[in-house]
């Protein structure tokens, strides 16, 4: 399912990493993410947060952090602050791919998903937020 977030907002990306038996794998340091902008197929260089052609990217992958090995074993995340993108395209879609870089025990990887930055959601304000009315 594609998330739509406001321009400059933070997108929380999380994944549950499983072995071949469907058991969560805690303590991994090789679970990483790469990001591609759909409009021009440029990849995010995590070193400077610029989107570039593939051969120009110096840091294609970024490590995801395990949320909590006791209470959320095998669940890894990264919060992507889109306000740090130095050359964004307005109302663009981004594909994220989570991979295991160097290992082979994460049976459910790679995984991919999309999110959109901007679009109609930039025009939704607090005055238009849904209200919950209790009777």
Sheet having the most strands: 7 strands, mixed
Helical content class: under 10%
CATH fold call: Immunoglobulin-like
Mind telling me the C-alpha Rg? 17 Å
Describe the structure.
The structure is a single chain. This protein is mainly beta and 135 residues long. The protein has one domain: Sandwich (Immunoglobulin-like), CATH 2.60.40. The protein is 0% helix and 41% strand. It contains no helices and ten strands. The strands form two sheets. Strands 1, 3, 4, 5, 6, 9 and 10 form a seven-stranded mixed sheet that branches. Strands 2-8-7 form a three-stranded antiparallel sheet, with no helix packed on it. The two termini are 33 Å apart. Mean pLDDT is 86; it is low at 126-135.
Task: Tell me briefly what this model is.
The protein is mainly beta. The protein has no helices and 10 strands.
List the helices and strands and how they pair.
Layout: E1 3-5, E2 10-16, E3 31-37, E4 42-45, E5 50-52, E6 62-63, E7 65-68, E8 72-81, E9 92-100, E10 111-117
Parallel strand pairs: 1-10
Antiparallel strand pairs: 2-8, 3-4, 3-6, 3-9, 4-5, 7-8, 9-10
Question: What are the salient characteristics of this protein?
Answer:
135 residues, 41% strand, mainly beta, Immunoglobulin-like, seven-stranded mixed beta sheet, three-stranded antiparallel beta sheet, 10 strands
